[in-house]
Backbone:
């Protein structure tokens, strides 16, 4: 069965610093991978997705993610964070068992220090 | 604007009462999903529907029921059998069969049962 692990429950970075959020997945074939962001009390917004092709994926709000098959990882990065990036971030993998379901990681809460 | 509407944003009920959460979408998507979100546990799938008049249980369906009489609507009923119903509930939709697993999320309903 597919699974997603986000090892960091909570990360704090200073405004202007670089960011990397980790995501490891378990899936036998080429996965469909997603990063979503959630502001407090809100729904989820898609940041970026990977299906195939270039392993470095660009998303909205200056985020990017790199798919590394050898490490079963899909880490999210941003070169310089802004206070508005404070939110919860979810990695997800598409589950191809007869239905287009997503399996989500537990999320990483990002706090930005001024 | 196309999107997903969930109402109400906050819902309060007494223990032992059934309650129905609304989810409406005007994206013309065939597939719809209900998730439950608890702190530190990510999103867990309750029910999903790939087409009108058909739905399947997700990972935590016990104590919940759904219907899918119209393409636009996928209401979730939290029954009195659900042991711990207080949570944040998210509805989502997607276009099945296209190979694109992206799901679009509503703003969520926070249910509090006392």
Residues:
């Amino acid at each position: 069965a597919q699974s997603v692990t986000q090892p960091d429950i909570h990360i704090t970075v200073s405004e202007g610093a670089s960011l990397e959020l980790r995501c490891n997945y378990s899936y036998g074939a080429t996965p469909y991978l997603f990063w979503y962001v959630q502001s407090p009390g809100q729904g989820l917004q898609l940041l970026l997705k990977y299906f195939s092709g270039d392993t470095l994926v660009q998303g909205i709000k200056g985020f990017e993610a790199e798919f590394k098959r050898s490490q079963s990882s899909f880490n999210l990065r941003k070169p310089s964070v802004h206070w508005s990036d404070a939110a919860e971030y979810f990695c997800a993998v598409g589950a191809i068992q007869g239905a287009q379901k997503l399996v989500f990681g537990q999320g990483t809460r990002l706090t930005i220090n001024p | 604007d196309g999107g997903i509407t969930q109402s109400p944003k906050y819902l309060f009920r007494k223990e032992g009462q059934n309650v129905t959460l609304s989810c409406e979408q005007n994206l013309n998507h065939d597939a719809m999903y209900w998730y439950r979100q608890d702190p530190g546990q990510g999103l867990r799938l309750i029910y999903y529907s790939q087409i009108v008049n058909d739905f399947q249980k997700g990972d935590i369906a016990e104590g919940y029921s759904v219907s899918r009489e119209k393409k636009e609507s996928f209401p979730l009923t939290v029954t009195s059998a659900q042991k711990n119903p207080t949570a944040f509930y998210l509805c989502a939709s997607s276009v099945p069969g296209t190979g694109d697993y992206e799901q679009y999320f509503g703003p969520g309903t926070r249910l509090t049962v006392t």
Notes: The longest strand of chain A covers residues 87-96. Chain A touches chain B at residues 9, 32, 34, 36, 41-46, 49, 51, 90, 94, 99-102, 104-107 (CB under 8 Å). Chain A has a mean pLDDT of 92.
